[in-house]
Amino acid sequence: MRIAVPSSGDDIKSEASRVFGRARSFIIAELKDGEIESFKSVANPAELV
Prior knowledge:
mainly beta
């Protein structure tokens, strides 16, 4: 399963953003058996709009 979390940074340990649409980036995490198997950071193009 994959989940996306709005993030204030580019790292898995970054604080979650309080604002989804203006978050700096999104952390996309791949979960397997309830554990994070892998993740990637995706920049939010709407951050500065």
